[in-house]
Amino acid sequence: MKYSYDYFKRMSSLPLEQKIAWSEQVILKALKENKNPAVSISWGKDSVVMLDLVRKFCKNTLVLYANTMCEYPETYKYRDEMLKEYYKGINYLETKPIKTFWECVEQYGFPEIRTNAKGKARQPFCCKYLKEKPLMDLEKKLGVDCIFIGLQASESMHRRLLYLRMGEYYWNKTEKRNKCLPLAIWNNKDVWEYVKLNNIPMCSIYKKMDRNGCMFCTGFKSWEKVMSRYNPRLTATIKKKMGQPVLNECYGFGLK
Predict the structure, then answer these.
(1) What is the per-residue pLDDT for 112?
(2) pLDDT by residue (tens digit) across 111-157?
(3) What pLDDT digit, counting tens, does each position of 171-208 carry?
(4) pTM given for the model
(5) Number of domains making up the chain
(6) Contacts with 165 (C-beta within 8 Å, 6 or more apart), sequence order
């Protein structure tokens, strides 16, 4: 491992001011060592904060968005508003899915948490065709040699182990480019504090949800609870398509 868990705990307990300074040094190192870096944005709070940090040192940085075509309507509205007003003239490109979400469902089934032969979690097929491969293809076409990703190691065990093993800046052998994680030691509290301190507009989805992302995703344990909080009818429709029973009283309406 590159770092010990004790090191991670120590770094993640730093005050925000020191975390910002740490992030800035990580970003500066990546910008210095790469000729054509890019920021991967999801229009979620983490990637927007990361973009704000990167733009302190590189205003014309390339910004790439993997548009899955099934994000929350609030995300698209926020994207349009930010591009028109806050990030006017930004160097920005989007990808489109290779297959639609529903084509992936028809071929592979609904997203679910899967593991490989070694018991390691792997992404559902829809992630590959909706965002990962389109984004990698565009990065290759553009000659991107480093991609900034707004990943927090505290978000999951998988992400924490990735950080401990690879660190905040590393060479990805498969993708043949560097990856930089400027928010690796941050947590949600840090992100919201930074947003407030810097008066960054945020997507209205956070008034209803804790995260943005694909609206139809069933690839995590609490998907039904999360989805029903936003759209009970959509939850019931997907459960019916899965062949699962729908308890009408759980969603507050009757289905015929």
Answers:
(1) 84
(2) 986 655 555 556 789 999 999 999 999 999 999 999 999 999 999 88
(3) 999 999 999 999 999 999 999 999 999 999 999 999 99
(4) 0.90
(5) 2
(6) 1, 2
| Distance (Å, whole) CA 178 – CA 126 | 24
Same-domain status, 58 and 112: yes
- Containing structural domain, residue 183: 5-206
Judge whether 148 lies within some domain: yes
Both 96 and 68 in one domain: the answer is yes
Same domain, 173 and 228: no
